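Ligand-bound model needed. flavin mononucleotide.
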Amino acid sequence: MTTKEDIKKQVRAAFDFRMAVRVYSDQKIPQEDLDYILDTAWLSPSSIGLEAWRFIVLEDKNIKEALKDAAWGAEYQLETASHFILLIAEKNARYDTESVKNSLVRRGLGEGEALAKRLATYESFQKNDMKTADNPRALFDWTAKQTYIALGNMMTAAAMIGIDSCPIEGFNYAKVNDILAQHGLINQEKEGIASMLSLGYRLRDPKHPRSRKPRSEVIFYDHSE
Ligand SMILES: Cc1cc2nc3c(=O)[nH]c(=O)nc-3n(C[C@H](O)[C@H](O)[C@H](O)COP(=O)(O)O)c2cc1C
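Prediction:
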């Protein structure tokens, strides 16, 4: 029987294994392993259950080539990764949009008083708490940052089965959006690139060991001195 201690060891081993991999071997990830990784993006949590995202597995070599100029942080990864995923976030997800209403419908809260009550809460949340309601940039940042949860989940899921990855935000957002729109992958009025993820198998081990701040500098309890 797998015990809790076994699982903790497996998860910790995955975190020790994971590192940002920039150059991959030519080994391909089997489709069922890719599907398993993508499922963790699909099933990730989102604020108010909005799921204001899409995950595009980029297969077209021409688009990859075009992206190289705009995505300096992904140059070798676009060339060598087994798979390359674009994390796309919705724009203008205001409290009064179909998108927000549909998230409530999905959760069985799409009618009558329940709907009105939730929408009023979201209106207040966006206007008074987040102060995003009338700021397209802030609204995009809100949905874009949620894609990072899916990004993290995919990286952990991959590492658990010995698949390498690298998160990517080293790119020119406007240029990448233009390229994706030109190739019909996104509708720029409604969505934009948030982040990217390369996946595959490392060509070689890292030259430098992983470095982190001491744990005591980042983990605190409220009664810490
Ligand atoms: C949000 C985010 C964006 C990143 N963008 C890039 C990138 O564009 N290109 C790249 O090579 N690495 C990128 N990285 C990888 C980081 O440089 C790397 O995770 C960090 O140096 C820690 O190293 P480790 O992942 O090997 O532990 C990014 C990491 C994060 C979390």
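Residues 19-209 form a domain with the NADH Oxidase fold (CATH 3.40.109.10).
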